[in-house]
Specification:
Radius of gyration: 15 Å
Distance between the termini: 33 Å
Strand order of the largest sheet: 4-2-1-5
Number of helices: 5
Strand content: 5-15%
CATH architecture: Alpha-Beta Complex
Mean pLDDT: 86
Number of strands: 6
CATH class: Alpha Beta
């Protein structure tokens, strides 16, 4: 199953994907840089910057910079990865930036029961790609 994550709220999307992964489905998530995080922009940026700076690559909790890796880590946090079924479930999940060439012709489904960012008209939200850029990620071609 291929899920388009564009304009989807990160927590709701991650819990839906975790539920399907527990059931044994193989899930590929595209457009992970376009996922939205609800909240005031300043506070969201501050929180994610603090999460990133908390640990290092060598010691402490490592927090990724890339949007697809942040989304996968969020999904992993909703699975019991200390048990074999949780580790198997997270291995069934693949996240991608934009749409890979080999998946362009495949059928893409929308996540069920997950609010779109468009429905959050009266709320504040930030794109995951913008948060990643804030903590130090530079997309290819922008170096």
């Amino acid at each position: 199953m291929i899920i388009n994550a564009e304009n989807r709220v990160i927590g709701r999307l991650a819990s839906e994907i975790a539920r399907k992964a527990k059931e044994g489905e193989e899930i590929k998530v595209i457009n992970s840089e376009k996922v939205v995080i609800s909240g005031e922009e300043k506070q969201v940026m501050k929180d994610y910057k603090q999460k990133y700076e908390r640990g290092t690559r060598h010691r402490g909790p490592y927090f990724p910079k890339r949007p697809d890796k942040i989304l996968k880590r969020t999904i992993k946090g909703m699975l019991p990865t200390n048990k074999p079924e949780g580790r198997e479930a997270i291995s069934n999940v693949k996240t991608y930036l934009s749409i890979p060439i080999e998946m362009e012709k495949e059928e893409i489904t929308e996540a069920e029961n997950v609010k779109k960012g468009d429905e959050l008209k009266n709320r504040n939200y930030v794109k995951l790609g913008d948060v990643s850029k804030h903590i130090g990620w530079t997309p290819r071609g922008e170096e």
